[in-house]
Amino acid sequence: MKIEHIAMYVNDLEAARDFFVKYLGGTSNDGYHNKNTDFRSYFISFEDGARLELMTKPEIIDAEKPLSRTGYAHIAFSVGSKKKVDELTDQLREDGYEIVSGPRTTGDGYYESCIIAIEGNQVEITV
Predict the structure, then answer these.
(1) Is residue 82 domain-shared with residue 120, that is, in the same domain?
(2) CA torsion, points 36, 52, 18, 48, in degrees to nearest 10?
(3) SS3 of 100, please?
(4) What CATH number corresponds to the domain at position 27?
(5) Residue 24: inside a domain, yes or no?
(6) Which helix (H) or strand (E) covers residue 27, if one does?
(7) Do residues 51 and 78 both lie within one domain?
(8) Which of 13, 79, 82, 118 is the most exposed place for a label (fewest CB within 10 A)?
(9) How far, in Å, CA of 79 to CA of 70, rounded?
């Protein structure tokens, strides 16, 4: 069994798509629009076959997203090396994204950094 895709509601669909394409090498489809409900989505595909569905619709509730909460904590992306973790973290910092932690080696041996990337949602960059 494998996870087919992960889905994420966002307010700014285009900005979210651009983030995953620009920084994490995703490839976007042309998008989907249900004209009856105004639901819109993009599927972002990554090199290893993983997919992320970004979605929006008019009646979304944008609740506060404290880092310590139940539910999904983050999406982690492996970039292949410590050097790439460092470089991408530096680029995200320079582009104005909040770095929550790292780059660092965690107690369980991961080399990572954590970024508040999309509308208060955390993205982890790891080896």
Answers:
(1) yes
(2) -140
(3) strand
(4) 3.10.180.10
(5) yes
(6) strand 27-28
(7) no
(8) 82
(9) 27
**CA 14 to centroid of chain Cα atoms:** 13
- Domain carrying residue 24: 6-56
111-118 β-sheet, strand order: 74-78, 121-126, 111-118, 98-105
Q: What is the pLDDT of residues 17-43, one digit of tens each?
A: 999 999 999 999 999 999 999 999 999
- Domain membership flag for residue 46: yes
Q: What is the pLDDT of residues 55-88, one digit of tens each?
A: 999 988 888 877 777 778 889 999 999 999 999 9
Structure tokens at 66: 């404290």
Distance CA 19, CA 13 (A): 10
Strands 32-34 and 121-126: unpaired
Q: Which two tokens stand for residue 45?
A: 């595909």
